[in-house]
Design a protein that fits this description.
The complex is a heterodimer of chains A (145) and B (112). Chain A is α+β, with helices and mostly antiparallel strands. Chain A has helices spanning 23-37, 43-63, 116-123, and strands at 11-18, 74-81, 85-92, 126-132, 135-143. Chain A has a 5-stranded antiparallel sheet. The longest helix of chain A is centred in the middle third of the chain and has 21 residues, at 43-63. Helices cover 41% and strands 29% of the residues of chain B. Chain B is built from 4 helices and 6 strands, in the order E-E-H-E-E-H-E-H-E-H. In chain B, strands 1, 2, 3, 4, 5 and 6 form a 6-stranded mixed sheet that branches. The chains are: A alpha+beta (145), B alpha/beta (112). Chains A and B meet through helix 2 and helix 3 of A and helix 2 and helix 3 of B.
Chain lengths: 145, 112
Amino acid sequence: MPSSDATGTPVQVRLVAPALPASLEEVHALLEELVQRSPGITARERMRFETALVEVASNVIQHAQPRPPDEHVTVTVVLRCDDAALTADLVDDALPAQVDPAAAEMPAPDAESGRGLALARSLCDELRLVREGDGNRWTVVCRRG
Amino acid sequence: MIDLEIDRRDDGVTVVRPAGRLTMVAAPQLTAVITDLVAEGRATFVVDLSQTVFVDSTGLGALIGCLKRARQAGGDLRLAAPTDQVTTILELTNLHRVLRTHDTVDEAGAEL
């Protein structure tokens, strides 16, 4: 059974950042921190989770609209590793998201965009989007073992 | 910003080697570089992914866009040395038949 950190305790890391393209590097760094603190994560688990996470973060960066009078969207990213799963929660303070991740379909091969959520869904076990208070909460779960 | 090495080979193949992550910030840079190279008159490309540690759907979109530009110019574009992450996402997005991959730059070049 894969362990979390050396003692089997769940590991959790958190980032608060503006929903701007430059923040994607911080999301990768946060994931790296989670991996460094959770030696049981396999390369394949990391690959699936990191790709799904980045697709969702990119969707927030590209599409989340600030609630007036805010000029920017802020997103809080929490990553968690325990024996059961790798989980990401991305909570923004934006207007209601205009997308249904459950309905995302892979476009035709010559399409130059529109693959992100369908790809994320194919990589993880759960991909949820709910409206929560004055923001949106995305949850990505990659089950382990 | 992504580091993009360009090798204009004598056999007409241009090798482009991104280093780092090919995601929403870097994808437009790759497209711009290939567009400029096509304007130079170069139309056959190998994108060497040996230094590309991560590609997301935006990166894939840019590669598709670059493939289209190469084909419109009468050429082609192949990928070389993809990591497991890239190979996996190419298969999951059904792009593995459109963006053809090879183990090495030389093998990719031989097909062009």
